[in-house]
Amino acid sequence: MMKKCVAEFVLTTAIVGGMVGCTTKGPKEAQYVEPTEIVSGVPEQPTMYDLDSSVEMLMEKMLASPLFSKSCDEVKAAKNGRPPVVVVGNIANKTTERIQGRLDAVGDTVRSALFTTGLFEVKDDAATGAIIARMSDNIDLGLEDGSLARAFGKHATPDFLMLGDFRHFADAGGVHTYRLRLAIHSLRTGKVVWEGTQTKVKL
């Protein structure tokens, strides 16, 4: 009888101890990194750091290009000193991965970088569409008199269109190569006025 009681006590203690040890853990607390810190991720997947830093490097190449400066100066002179208007188009996904959302964010980074240079008047086609829709809806509902829509008028046609693409190559030995390409096209001549590629290799 004593042995049975001792055995039951040991079993009960083990069960209770196990239940105490199986407490549910809460969500992991977020940790932040410094803005300049490299976030490497895994070789098989590009991080936003890979993409945004590639944009930064490409913008430096663009600003250092004499041919690009010449094209901008020619457009500016033809417009009586007004800077060229640029619109950012699609950054095409040339990989097999589902990363278009990241590449859309890269387009935002490119547009912000172009604006920051002070060399362009930057146009956002999506925002223009949202503005027009907003004005139209409020006029139709009788909430506004339409004066803003009349003042909005027609916009100048962009001078440049920025397009790009992103590629991923899986090389031997677990090496992964990523390449971002950006190019500025003249909408008046159809010619490329600047093009650059930035490659990153991860292993």
Secondary structure: elements and pairs:
Layout: H1 2-21, H2 48-63, H3 66-78, E1 85-93, H4 100-117, E2 121-123, H5 125-140, H6 147-152, E3 160-170, E4 176-186, E5 192-202
Parallel strand pairs: 1-2, 1-3
Antiparallel strand pairs: 3-4, 4-5
Helix pairs in contact: 2-4
Summary of the model, kept short:
Helix content is 44%, strand content 22%. By secondary structure, the chain is of the alpha/beta class.
Salient structural properties:
203 residues, alpha/beta, Rossmann fold, five-stranded mixed beta sheet, 22% strand
Walkthrough of the structure:
The protein is an alpha/beta fold. The chain has a single domain, classed as Rossmann fold (3-Layer(aba) Sandwich), CATH 3.40.50. Helix content is about 45%, strand content about 20%. The chain is built from six helices and five strands, in the order αααβαβααβββ. It has a five-stranded mixed beta sheet. Helix 2 packs parallel to helix 4. It is globular and about 60 Å long. The relative contact order is 0.16. The mean pLDDT is about 85.
